[in-house]
Write a structure and sequence with these properties.
about 20% strand; 4-stranded parallel β-sheet; Rossmann fold; alpha/beta; 2 domains; single chain; about 325 residues; 6-stranded parallel β-sheet; disordered N terminus
Length: about 325
């Protein structure tokens, strides 16, 4: 056979194979590409142990369900980098992921970009920090929230503190980011419990979820209100900062501290009695709840209602 004839036959075979592959991709058999949904998990700062735990929980779930979906997990470097989180949502939308599960750094600022992703056909599920209801209504967006009742969780920690202080004792609240729904709800829960217990809220100030900032805020509060008997912190990173400030001021053991999140560093301190209590919102499961909801929405083509997840008080009595 001549060289020219061999080349002609090879060319014809290539065309036939290409046509067969094209037909298969158009429904003539199994799809030529992976049909598994791709889920993007977008968190807040991975420097916060809570979100690192959340990421690990999501990865473990995906490893156990690798046949059901693929996972892309991202987070921002610090709690206040809202513009970077918006950019991450835009990137995931550009990659045409099937679903986005997001713990928004800001309850209002993330609504628009999440609505854009939703309009592009991407399923969006809100976890951890609830998107603002008024802004959702303004944008005509319906995004389900999967997460805990933050006010109730903070109330549990505050009630526990209230039982251990004398009525009219001075207490301080170290708040999260003021524009975050969960920060607002935790502050309200602390206020509920302190008012019920007859405590005097002498100071309430934001430390932006950050440990170093909480150290500074607590130092200033102790200087201005030396009679403080209790400090209620809206997350455990800030509880660590508050405890460091108390130690520096020689007040550790004399001022009770409660936190929220049950990160491992605080878990150990609760066990030793250095921190009175924290609230476990099960960060390792929170992303999983959101991912499972997103997969359900993709399968059923429906928008499920909000889903409340558990919050549990952790004290030395139930520490293990």
């Amino acid at each position: 056979m001549s060289c020219a004839r061999v080349l002609k036959r090879i060319g014809l075979t290539t065309v036939v194979l290409a046509l067969a592959a094209s037909m298969t991709g158009c429904g003539g058999g199994q799809p030529a590409v992976d049909s598994k949904p791709k889920v993007a998990l977008i968190m807040k700062s991975l420097a916060n142990e809570f979100f690192h735990t959340m990421q690990e929980g999501a990865r473990s779930h995906q490893n156990a369900h690798y046949q059901d979906y693929d996972l892309i997990a991202n987070g921002i470097k610090d709690e206040l980098d809202v513009s970077k989180q918006i950019e991450l949502v835009e990137q995931m939308a550009a990659q045409k992921v099937s679903a986005i599960v997001i713990a928004p750094a800001d309850s209002k600022a993330l609504v628009s970009v999440c609505k854009k992703a939703q309009d592009a056909g991407i399923v969006v599920v809100n976890i951890d920090n609830k998107l603002d209801e008024a802004v959702l209504a303004e944008k005509n967006a319906k995004i389900p929230f999967v997460g805990p009742n933050n006010r109730e969780g903070a109330r549990k920690a505050g009630d526990y503190l209230g039982l251990r202080l004398r009525p009219s004792s001075a207490v301080a609240i170290v708040e999260g980011v003021p524009t975050a729904f969960n920060a607002i709800q935790r502050k309200l829960g602390f206020e509920d419990s302190m008012k019920k217990a007859g405590m005097n809220i002498a100071a309430s100030q934001s430390a932006g979820w950050e440990m170093d900032k909480a150290n500074q805020v607590t130092t200033a509060i102790l200087a201005e209100h030396p009679d403080i008997q209790g400090i209620l912190c809206a997350n455990d990173s800030m509880a660590l900062g508050a405890l460091a400030a108390l130690k520096a001021a020689g007040r550790a053991g004399h001022v009770q501290v409660v936190g929220f999140d049950n990160i491992s560093a605080v878990h150990a301190l609760v066990g030793s009695g250095e921190i009175l209590a924290t609230v476990d919102q099960h960060g390792d499961k929170l992303a999983v709840y959101g991912i499972e909801y997103a997969l359900e929405m993709l399968h059923n083509k429906s928008v499920p209602a909000d889903k409340e997840t558990p919050v549990d008080l952790i004290t030395a009595d139930n520490f293990h």
